Amino acid sequence: MASKQERKIDQFPKAFMPKQSGKNDFDQQLLDELPNRIGDQPNLTTAKVIVIGDVSVGKTSIINKYCHRVFDKDYKATIGVDFEVEDFVIKGSNFQLQIWDTAGQERFQSVARAYFRSSNAVIIAFEFHDETSLDHVRDWYNSAKRENSDDECDFYIIGTKCDLCKEEELADYEKEAVQLAEKLNAEYWRTSAKAGINVDEMFNRVAVLAFERIVLKQTEVRKTIKLEDIGSGTLSAESKKTSGGCCT
User: Taking a C-beta distance cutoff of 8 angstroms, is the pair 181, 20 a contact?
Assistant: First the structure.
């Protein structure tokens, strides 16, 4: 079987609701840093995204549509966890996204939650036409939040199966979903795996924002280490100066 091609991203992926997001372009610090990373394959940047939500809301379908370009209405529910890996070249820099598909069934949730930790992005899915799945979004958010800190993880709330709703029905669901997303500092997306609506756009944005967050953090750590090394070198030089030239 032929290997999948890398996804090349040079333009910043826009949010479904740009005004809600406020993040619509690459960070200038990232752009300044990227020339130092291009072709640096040993330092491949990898991010982890988990997709969570109630059973049968379409988590696996969304992932399969993005990763394999397929939609299977008869897929079996995920048991425990599964994951896919997608390779990217973002602004010339290599990047890998691990997409973790978690079980929504209550009996498997304790297993799934073990994989919530150390996520760079959390996608919480609910299904249009299923009010209960939307009501449970906050519970899923709280579960993931306990395992991840604000400065390392982005949150997304996505409505699935939008192709099954009329526009006026979507408006009612989205009013509540958008308000919740704003309270939780999460991005909202409307999606459909069957119709391919906003699937690529959403995952591409998740990838770019995770990539940017990781690179900026690595840059900050490197600068801190460099400053510490400079400080150490200065102290060492001062020490030699004071002790050097003394006769006993």
Answer: yes
